[in-house]
Amino acid sequence: MRKTAIVTGANSGFGKLITMRLAEQGYTVIAGVRQEANAKKLAKEIEQASLSEYIHIESLDVTDTQSIDALKKKLDAYAPITLLVNNAGTAYAGFAEEVSLDMYRQQFEVNVFGVMEMTQTVLPFMTSGAKIFNMSSISGLMGMPALSPYVSSKFALEGYTESLRIELAPFGIQAALIEPGSFQTNIWNTSMNEQMTQPAEGSKYTSIYQKMMAYINAQKSNYGDPREVAELVVTLAGKKQLKQLRYLVGKGVRLSFTAKRLLPWNMWEKIILRTLLSKK
């Protein structure tokens, strides 16, 4: 009998790759997709991969309680749920002084409250041995200028998952965080091009923004292959015991996390400022 997994935000990036790989590895996957057009596109790709029998696309908006409730009504047919991958997310960017509070709220609705509501919905259908993977980011471990909406949401997700893991341990259900660095997915292109509150004309942040963008554009060729993240999720899903809370993945993320943890704050801050904002 195939195990059952739920993947949110399954139509692109990490979510699509994780969905495909889980199906290939023997899971029945409920693939949550928000937009109908994206669901149709995903269905074609699934058919081309000969995985239609194992992947069931469901309409799912993690910020809409009615949408989540509609999915919940179908879960009895799939229970027990072995794996929940809370992957749906978005990234808003901008300097803290200039970002609207509505944008912060929208960021948290997807990256934090959406995860919380999905977790509460699915947990009653889980038994001992089940796993919950919350897709965080290296940005959940270190703050960066112009990314406070995204960073703060991921910091919140970190604390939530740490508490969740301890609460569920007595019941044999394991929760863990996946911490990718920079990968070749749409989220950063979208956030910087479409969801970035750019400095207004005459803003004191214009120079900082220009230097940051120059650095980011120069680093794009070094972004990792997102299949590495999908393989990590599949590997961890097959393990009996998740010994760690956090699983870092990507070029340089372990080094950066270790440096931040060990260095005095003033030294770490100087490194960030020098790296991102130095004159070229």
TrEMBL record:
Transmembrane segments: none
GO molecular function: oxidoreductase activity
Pfam families: adh_short (PF00106)
Keywords: Oxidoreductase
Superkingdom of the source species: Bacteria
SUPFAM superfamilies (UniProt xref): NAD(P)-binding Rossmann-fold domains (SSF51735)
Family note: Belongs to the short-chain dehydrogenases/reductases (SDR) family.
Protein's recorded name: Short-chain dehydrogenase
Origin species: Bacillus pumilus (Bacillus mesentericus)
Lineage: Bacteria, Bacillati, Bacillota, Bacilli, Bacillales
